[in-house]
# Entry
Amino acid sequence: MHHLNLGPDLSLPLAEASGQCVAILGIRGSGKSNTAGVIFEELLAARYPLSIVDIDGEYFGLKEKYEVLVVGAGENVDIELDVDAAPGVAELSLREGVPVILDVSDMLAEERELFVLEYLTRIWSLAGKLRKPYMIGIEECHEFIPQGMRTDLKEVIARIALRGRKRGLGAVIISQRSAKVEKDVLTQAGMLFLHRVVHEVDMRVYSELLPWPKAEVKEQVTSLGVGECIYLSGQSIRKVKIRPRHTFHGGFTPSFKPVETPKLRQVRGEILAAIHKFKEEKGASLPEEELQQRLEKLEAELALKQARIRELERRLRERQAPPTANPAAPEPPPEHPVPPTFDLPPEVLRKVERLLKRLRRLPIHERRLVSFLAAREPRSYTTAELAAWADCAEATLLAEPPTELVELGLLSCERLARGITYRAQLKAFVNRAFSGFLPELGPQGCHHLVGYLRGRLCQLSALEHDFSRIA
Ligand SMILES: Nc1ncnc2c1ncn2[C@@H]1O[C@H](COP(=O)(O)OP(=O)(O)OP(=O)(O)O)[C@@H](O)[C@H]1O
Ligand SMILES: [Mg+2]
# Structure
């Protein structure tokens, strides 16, 4: 019988993991993605088909050894896909046993949610007919199955995790925010890999999952090193060390050693050809009924959003005069013609272009914001000041904060006595997002890159009339 060799003292019969809900929890850097990567490697070695929802684009390295198709929107995709093609790829993966990574790292939150929803819905319904062994991996699963919130996507994932076994479906769910993951799913997981946590809220979750007194949970869990975890399955409970991944780990903690880009296996031509076919057909292959349902759902969402816009506009009109107690208006922004590229390497310029492509899809008030703040770094501005000077309605800023810009690290947000403030932090962003290029760039190149990026960001607000992003 095939075994999954997860570490020097942990080898599981494949049948034990099949159809199982496996939860991998722990703080940042505790080794969760490595553990998940090792499980996926072992499943792939056993030719066990799977799909991985990869929110940070960190699993493509599996292609070093295995034939895996990477689709979606991210740096390492084999084929860029949008939501229309998602059900077709899901069907191909399940029918033909093609392992797939859904790289959703470059998608905006709503697009990502819809893409994964369409994909997993098709997997669920088809698995009811085919009943083949199949595993779904979900990174940062608190984003998809948040505690105390109901969404269609959460519903389908919970179904797969809790009731998938009869259809052959299992799930590997990974999260650094144990307390934010739907409790019902965690408490019903049949196999747990509990890496180190430190915060009280997470410790409380672990206490609910482990059959030990609280003090012992704390003692055992705080003593765990990187890659170590408490393994719990059925009657078995013990501390184990997981082996490092054999394949390249895209989410490794950066060090100063140069990183070699791995050689990746190519996916068979006929699979790629089949996917291109879905892409060309776009939604044409969907049954009329399904198209109609999608249309109705989108229309309902649009109506809700329009109502919200009207409400925000009304609140805005009701506001008295714009804030008068503002300090003197900031200096006018410097002129920003197309900035020189300073001989920056082409791959660095391409990465900047990918970032801009993503930012162009943001709502106009967020583009104005990042443009305004980038030109004035390191100064910070309150939402009232931004409303007055950057032409971003304060109500919009408060109701729809620029979460994505903050998550990306382009802006930082602070709650100060004078109010909620934002500022740009391009140098810190470049240091993080371009860390792989820094040794090559050197301090001067890094300085040029920050300048170039600033120039490009300053042009973003000039795209107000660019309707192509909507098309
Ligand atoms: N079992 C292990 N043996 C050796 N090194 C490990 C092991 N697990 C993780 N590491 C190393 O520790 C670092 C962090 O691991 P990993 O990326 O898996 O953590 P994580 O919990 O997924 O973190 P994050 O929450 O930031 O995604 C990596 O550089 C990885 O190579
Ligand atoms: Mg990780």
Summary: The chain has a mean pLDDT of 86.
